[in-house]
Amino acid sequence: MRKAKTQAHVFSISKHHVQSISMAIVAFIVMTFLIVTMLTTAGNHSRFSSSALHDWTAQMQSEWFIHILGNENRYYLDGLEDSSTPNLGTAVLELATNMNVEDPRTFLGRELPGFSAFDDTIAVAGEGTDFTTMSMESAPPPEVQQEQGNTTAGNDGEDSEQRETTAAVDDEDPLIHISHAHNRESFYPEIDEDEPFHPETNIVKVGEYLADNFRDYGLPVEVSADDIQHMLNERDLPYHQSYEVAREVVVENMEENDELEFFFDLHRDSVSAEHTTATINEETYARTFFVVGEDHPDYEKNLAMAEEIHERLEDEWPGLSRGVIIRGGSGTNGIFNQDLSPNSMLIEFGGVDNTFEELYRSADAMAEVLQEYIYEEIEEE
To answer: Under 8 Å CB-to-CB from 104, ≥6 apart: which residues?
Structure first.
């Protein structure tokens, strides 16, 4: 009788040890999987940094962090409609796979071609702005790129070395630099073409008009007239490297002009007029959109500036700004040369269906708001 009890006791202990070892093995596998996922999904520029931790934790439900704080201070839980603890399994899934069960885009983005274009984050939504009306880039068709590569783009036969240094510079040391990484983006109402890309009638005209406004406000400015598309074609580079080539131009100008502090890269959107046109005080304006690249450590400074300019525009011209979006990750540049200065912005002016008249009205409004902001920043220095 005693022998049977002893055997039962031994068997019970062995079963308990087996369960403990099994749980430890499972926990080890899960933790290893999570660590490997974190190390392999972070970019080289952000590994083992605060920005990497921010990106990883951003994948998890924010309620988890509120509940953690709520364990120490119950007031944090008062603002929650549902004070129940979030599902641990869901949190582990989101952290391990970068998939959010509440956001279908995270499931489809890796499977459907082009779906990653909707991965942008809306930092500030202007009127009518949602994930169906996001800013969209469109490259020229291959045949158009080849055709344009054989032109001199309005430089009257100058060689490529001369073209790469063309910039309208004021006599006084410029404070503002205006560039156009996609310099041939154009507008259907202003050209007789099948595609909205033109070597002369394009977004550069808006940049020149904006610069004239700055000069009227007493702010020295330079406008890059470099034909980035021609430079791409000469080097046989793809369109998505426009920002890398434009960066060379901006850096060169920064080295030549130490006083440069504010940098504006002007573009036009590819969406239709219903999303890019606003009627304000019985006049039509080309709506603006601010794009902030998040793939560099200090992007929040650029974001703060964009949000501030958006708010000021909305105070004076309600509906003019479509908002501020954050763009990064695979499939896009994700920096847009904004790492060169905290006072750098990418501004979309209108879309393919807007006219220069509408664009210039928007440039007038933008210049008024920006000059106030710039003078305030100068006074603080």
So the answer is: none
CA geometry: angle at 68 spanning 26 and 77, to 5°? 135
CATH number listed for the domain at residues 142-380:
3.40.630.40
Tokens of 16: 């308990």
Surface-to-core class of residue 89, CB atoms within 10 Å of its CB (0-12 exposed, 13-18 middle, 19+ buried): exposed
289 by DSSP, 3-state: which? strand
Q: Which of 152, 138, 381, 128 is nearest to 261 (CA)?
A: 381
List the domain boundaries for the chain.
2-111, 142-380
SS (H, E, C) 220-279: CEEEECCCHHHHHHHHCCCHHHHHHHHHHHHHHHHHHCCCCCEEEEEECCCCCHHHHEEE
The pLDDT tens digits for 86-108 are 565 665 555 555 555 555 555 55
What is the tens place of the pLDDT at every residue in 316-359? Answer: 999 999 999 999 887 788 999 999 999 999 999 999 999 999 99
313: closest CA among 372, 377, 366?
366
